[in-house]
Amino acid sequence: MMKKVLIFSLAILISGFITAQETKQGSKLPSVNIKTLEGQTFNTKDINNNGKPIIISFWALWCTPCKKELNAYNDNYEDWQEETGVKIIAVSIDDSRSSAKVLPFVRGKDWEFEVLLDPNSDFKRAMSVNMIPHTFILDGEGNIVYQHTSYYEGLEDEIFEIVEKVAAGEYESGTK
Amino acid sequence: MKKLVTILIFALSLTTTVTAQGFLGKSEVHGSFEADGMYYHADKDLGITDSLINGNIFGFNGFADIIYTLGDFSAGFRYEAYLPPIAGFDPSLDGQGFPYLWASYTTEKFSFTVGNFYEQFGNGLVLRTYQEWTLGYDNSINGIRIIYEPTKGIILKGVYGTQRYFWAKYAKNGRGVIKGFDGEININDVFGSLSDSKIKLILGGSAVSKYQSDQNPFYKLPQNVGAFAGRFNLGIGRFVFTSEYAHIINDPSAVNNYIYKPGNGLTFAGSYSTKGLGIFAMFKRNDNMSYKSDEAVTSNALDINFLPPLIEAHTYMLASMYPYATQPNGEIGFQFEIIYSVPKKSKLGGKYGMSININYSQMNDIARERVNDTSFIGESGTMGWKSDFFKFGKQIFNRDLTIEIDKKFNRRFKSIFKYIYQDYDISTILGHTGDPNVKANIGIVDMTWKFTSKKAIRWELQGLWTKQDKGNWAAALIEYTVSPHWFFSIADQYNYGNDHTSERIHYYTGSFGYTLRTTRLSLTYGRQREGVVCVGGVCRQVPASSGFYLTVSSSF
Questions:
Q1: Does A147 sit within 8 Å of B517, measured CB to CB?
Q2: Residue B511 belongs to some domain of the structure
């Protein structure tokens, strides 16, 4: 029993480390219908930033590290946009218990970036996101070049270093 | 042994598929995995005399979810194994297999899915299928789903199938078959002249029916039970109003004690949002709204609809001591919240500003009256009860007032201060029959000191003060993080105020974890207190346990 489990975990770790070495080149966003903060339907294929980088971060009102990560991005957003033109999209997976509360919360916190609602986790599932926070960086062509789970204080610096490289066309998927 | 080899083979073949560039060029493979293992040992103080919980020294929950896409076509599966399920998860999960298997074809106007799928109509009051791994909850429909957008602004959905019930294959005359239809119209998109209007309106309606053949020997049960819902979402400038009303024709079941009363539910939410200020209010009522595909089931399975709890979700250790679970047979309540950011550079706000959050929530039982002189309230085989729609019952299930202040003092130091007052009907919600409501004051301080650009220490101090149930608690936590890879933490919850000195126990834990991009590993050792884990109002009981807990997860 123990053996089965340890080997299963090992299989996951091995696959995880191997795949972590090289995020698939040219992986684009799936086409999923989610919602804007005003309740309008929005298709994820329409996510676009005119050739500049995009950060997509999955979060929820009940996820404290997610809110810390987004606060850190908000504090730096103006500078980051000036330097790289990056666009941040925060996707809330709050379900109908609290999805109506996301709009007043985001305005009350004065978060400047775009927020979308994914109340039945359709986009989260299609992106193979498991635990949140989970953050993706897309390059100018809409390819996913980097992704990361968990948030630790100071992570935003690493995220921005990668965004700078992506904006300059110098980032190689799979490095760092 | 064979199982093990298959797992290893597909795990390794996946890595080669991914690193090779896909055999058809444009095809892509994504996936996620998780393995959770728990290893128990005896713990005299917790009353655990041997190392077995439910007859097992060990629990293991694992899954692997793969998605394959090629142009407009996608397909996928999830493999799950519970060998055996971790303590607190439904023992019916014991086993392994592929409970989630699907294929889908999606174009701009049209989407067709066959196999298992998750879907939500409106707010879920008549249909919501979803999965929550941390609860062991999965009510996916296995069948077909068609989504059609004849023109921009109109979305039509149809579903047909049977729901997942742990590992049980669907058998004729077993659980019910579900058919559902949903239509949504975005008025501003459909009527082009209104597209720039300051008023935004979306209307929607759903009709769902389940068919289950009547195998009950005591009652003549309706074989077809229909449910209907109507909703709107109205935006006017800074205000947004959204509401949904649902009606279930009649669904006598083990959950409602076989009454023939129809069910009804209403949610109504309004908000006002402007820069630096958000105000939110919500009203909710449920009356006999349980709607499952099998009349005999009472566990967390086979729900067709979703009844969200209208209570602030608490995640801090002591704040989640008394969690609320939706009462499907009836509840009525409201929630009110203000989120305000004190401007930066003001006297109170300081250089970095300050955020204040105040929330008040209350859920009561509905007011019930006897249907006639000869039947008592809830008596099986009758119409159950009568209830005035907007009247509040006398019993308070839960109410709480939460005040939270977030302040960043300087570049290195920030803090969250939280106070909660809670009044909790432990008798109804946790089944401690006869116990009075728990009235508790909870205080939390959560501080973070970032001493280099990558290293930080965070500590929490919490207290819960009450004269009921187990008395007072104190808790503390220290966490050290090194971005982007490491965390270490130790925590303790101490029931210092328990009337029985032998029950004044320390629930201590120590954890550490390592993250590399999307792969995360964490190991925890210590004691877990007996309680309830709730996610979105759906809860599972967790027994007290002591031992190791290992989680490994990854996605690509």
A1: yes
A2: no
